[in-house]
Amino acid sequence: MTHVIVLGNEKGGSGKSTAAMHVVVALLKSGRKVAAIDLDMRQRSLSRYVENRRKYCESKGIDLVFPLMPEVRPSSLDSREAARQEETENFAAALQSLAGCDFVVIDCPGADTHLSRLAHAHADTIVTPLNDSFVDFDLLARLDPATGAVAGPSLYSEMVWAARKRRALAGVPGGIDWVVMRNRLSATQARNKREMGKKLEDLSARIGFRLARGFGDRVIYRELFPMGLTLLDLGGPDAPVRLSTMSHVTARLEIRSLVATLKLPGRET
Amino acid sequence: MTHVIVLGNEKGGSGKSTAAMHVVVALLKSGRKVAAIDLDMRQRSLSRYVENRRKYCESKGIDLVFPLMPEVRPSSLDSREAARQEETENFAAALQSLAGCDFVVIDCPGADTHLSRLAHAHADTIVTPLNDSFVDFDLLARLDPATGAVAGPSLYSEMVWAARKRRALAGVPGGIDWVVMRNRLSATQARNKREMGKKLEDLSARIGFRLARGFGDRVIYRELFPMGLTLLDLGGPDAPVRLSTMSHVTARLEIRSLVATLKLPGRET
Ligand SMILES: Nc1ncnc2c1ncn2[C@@H]1O[C@H](COP(=O)(O)OP(=O)(O)OP(=O)(O)O)[C@@H](O)[C@H]1O
Ligand SMILES: Nc1ncnc2c1ncn2[C@@H]1O[C@H](COP(=O)(O)OP(=O)(O)OP(=O)(O)O)[C@@H](O)[C@H]1O
Ligand SMILES: [Mg+2]
Ligand SMILES: [Mg+2]
Questions:
Q1: C-alpha triplet A231, A236, A239: angle, nearest 5°
Q2: Searching chain A, which residue's CA lies closest to the CA of residue B139?
Q3: Residue B148 Cα, ligand 2 centroid: separation in angstroms?
Q4: Distance from residue A19's CA to the centre of ligand 1 (Å)
Q5: How far apart are CA B164 and CA A208, in angstroms?
């Protein structure tokens, strides 16, 4: 039974591709069969990350874990209606080819596209990374400018609710587990962190998501992108970056804690 | 002679809307006639920022500077060809209505849209904010995974070059001044900052942009979004946030330095 994990957040730069790569590698290292689908076919950050990983392995003559990565092409037909049909078929075909996998991790673009909506509708788990910022928060819910009170759900919450409704109407059993993970948390900025924390706790009950502790803003989550590596690949004698800082240790705990929070099926991940 | 400033970067979350709001308020406060166009008609971060500002002013009974803000609607026609035509007309009409302004600041979405390309082609200045991250860098240029050397321009550089070419072919005098500004610079992460700095200096000569020092990662750049305020609006006795930290002082210098770097026309801005 393939479990679909979607990294979704219409807000750009919230950390979807970064979280996707680290979840993929964490699950692969726990011995699971993992596939990844990059739906951001223009920027292709996740595909580029894995491409860099391939080239690095080739040039160093080493072996690393890799996900299966089928392509889902966006349609270039002129009629948007016809394009949506073609993309629905491409997406379904890709998912079917992955029926033997334990997990399929789908990275969505920071935009409202038809493929992104399809992914959300097929998700068993949606992971939504979020900068600790009211600019990012604005895509989950509106705040009253005078009182700061939560004034109602916003665009991206509505997208997740539409996916939940679609799944229910299609008669698929079980709801979508929606996990919001705070990302790029600052070591300082205490008041803003507290404010965001309060608003997110308030919102989680109202619009139905679980709140994951998330990741700090750590250079180790991004400095290895050009080599296609993650923190989880380091530790060997010829690692390009010395795993010696508090930040690295804490980052490992953050990744493990995120996977545990996702309560994924199968043996303890 | 209206000077068009475009905030462009296809990479999501690089800081376009944040930079747009602060440039708009800085220019308004220097006494210029400023208009703003939000081309991210789905997320509307800049429009929301100004909406919050309006509501805040109304609820507190105060006066703040505001840009003119005409709407440019994306087309909902089914044929992409026809949609592009409609958007080209809407965009041209909006720009014409702003002929009396000193500056038009255009905030682009973190995606490759027809409206975004139109804005780039009409720009006198393009400001490209960039996270200090090789994941963001990847949209400007590719790096060789084995050697780290710059391997060639990437998607967003190609978009700016296409805009420059289009402007030249249209016979518009003067080139586009392209300024890349580092954003969300960390107070720590010294090695990564140095690496990014070197690669950007190298690239600036190759692909023709000027490098602005940019903004640090400071909570003051985002915590005022719900009230529609910026650091530049604070300082009065009833300011909601006390302007007392080193970070605030440095942020003011960063904003002033950015505007100076843009070398905009007219009296000293
Ligand atoms: N925890 C983190 N620590 C440090 N940097 C991070 C972290 N998470 C993300 N980043 C950086 O923030 C930027 C945005 O992250 P990322 O590209 O993963 O977001 P995204 O949601 O996939 O963006 P898009 O909407 O463009 O697809 C990148 O430069 C990335 O390297
Ligand atoms: N200098 C800064 N200091 C602190 N936070 C910042 C800074 N610049 C941007 N941010 C935050 O980073 C996130 C992304 O910024 P912003 O929304 O301005 O980027 P964008 O390029 O407009 O994104 P999109 O592609 O989604 O339109 C927001 O949460 C914003 O508050
Ligand atoms: Mg991404
Ligand atoms: Mg924006």
A1: 65
A2: A43
A3: 27
A4: 8
A5: 47
Radius of gyration of chain A (CA): 19
Q: A-chain residues within 8 Å CB-CB of B110?
A: 12-13, 110-111
Which residues approach ligand 2 with their CB closer than 6 A?
A: A 11-13, 110, 131, 133, 135-136; B 12-18, 40, 43, 45, 109-110, 183-184, 215, 217-218, 221-222
Phi/psi at B116 (5° precision)? -65, -40
In tens, the pLDDT along A61-119 reads 999 999 999 999 899 999 999 999 999 999 999 999 999 999 999 999 999 999 999 99
d(CA B104, CA A123): 42
Give the tens place of pLDDT for each residue, A170-204: 998 889 999 999 999 998 888 899 999 999 999 99
pLDDT surpassing 60 at residue A241: yes
How many whole angstroms from A230 Cα to the centroid of ligand 4?
Answer: 28
Find the closest chain B residue to A79 by CA distance.
Answer: B79
Q: Which helix (H) or strand (E) holds B35?
A: strand B34-38
Nearest-atom number in ligand 2 for the CA of B11 is: 25
Q: Say if the Cβ atoms of B227 and A131 lie within 8 Å.
A: no
Regions of chain B short of the pLDDT cut 50: 269
Backbone angles phi, psi at A191, to 5 degrees: -65, -45
Write the DSSP assignment of chain A as a string of letters.
-PEEEEE--SSTTSSHHHHHHHHHHHHHHTT--EEEEE--TTT-HHHHHHHHHHHHHHHHT------B----PPP--SBHHHHHHHHHHHHHHHHHHTTT-SEEEEEPPSS--HHHHHHHHT-SEEEEEEESSHHHHTTTEEE-TTT--EEEE-HHHHHHHHHHHHHHHTT-SS--EEEEEEESB-SS-HHHHHHHHHHHHHHHHHHT-EEE---B--GGGTTTGGGT--GGG--STT-SS---SHHHHHHHHHHHHHHHHTT-SSS--
